[in-house]
Amino acid sequence: MPFETSLSTEAFCAAFVSALVTAGINSVRPRSDAARAGFQAVMDRLDDEISLARQRNDREGMYSLLKIRTDLAPSSNGEFDNFESCLRSLQTSMVSSPNPAFADLRFNVSRSYAESSLEFLESGWAELAKSAARRFDSPSESPADERRLPVAG
């Protein structure tokens, strides 16, 4: 999918959260095995899209995707600290984690708000966020411990 504009890492994370909420995932335990597998699946999805952008000779899209992928990549110990940090940075608007020691990140947006925010994105970015959320939700046949909690709204 071609990209007309670039997107920041933070905007991608916000779109990803919206896509998770529209898929029924309202909280994530970032340090869990299932979440780590999901984060890796998102990285794989970004890699796929980078390859497609390269094939289309879409330099701007490729560099924007590379920046997001690099910003969210796992650290040398294999943890997705940067991805978790990006999600926690949304705390004031989309994510609730009242105490950083708590393992869960709860997404404080209604499904209708999440759907609306995805509609405002350029279609290529919205589709990427949705496909990343689908891969996060089912990176493999491992048991998911992400929770589907009702959200008011």
Write a brief caption for the model.
The chain is mainly alpha-helical. The protein has six helices and three strands, in the order H-E-H-H-H-E-E-H-H.
Q: Could you describe the 3D structure shown?
A:
The protein is mainly α and 153 residues long. The chain has one domain. Helices cover 55% and strands 5% of the residues. The chain is built from six helices and three strands; from the N terminus they run H-E-H-H-H-E-E-H-H. It has helices spanning 9-22, 33-55, 59-72, 81-88, 111-120, 123-137, and strands spanning 27-28, 95-96, 105-107. It has a three-stranded antiparallel sheet, with no helix packed on it. Strand 2 and strand 3 form a beta hairpin. Helix 2 (33-55) packs antiparallel against helix 3 (59-72).
Counting copies of identical and different chains, the oligomeric state is single chain
Q: Which class best fits the helix and strand makeup? A: mainly alpha
Give the CA-based shape: globular
Q: What portion of residues belong to β-strands?
A: under 5%
Secondary structure: number of strands: 3
The number of helical elements comes to 6
Number of domains: 1
Mean pLDDT: 84
Question: What's the N-to-C terminus distance?
Answer: 32 Å
Can you give keywords for this protein?
6 helices; disordered C terminus; mainly alpha; 153 residues; 3-stranded antiparallel beta sheet
Fold topology:
Elements: H1 9-22, E1 27-28, H2 33-55, H3 59-72, H4 81-88, E2 95-96, E3 105-107, H5 111-120, H6 123-137
Antiparallel strand pairs: 1-3, 2-3
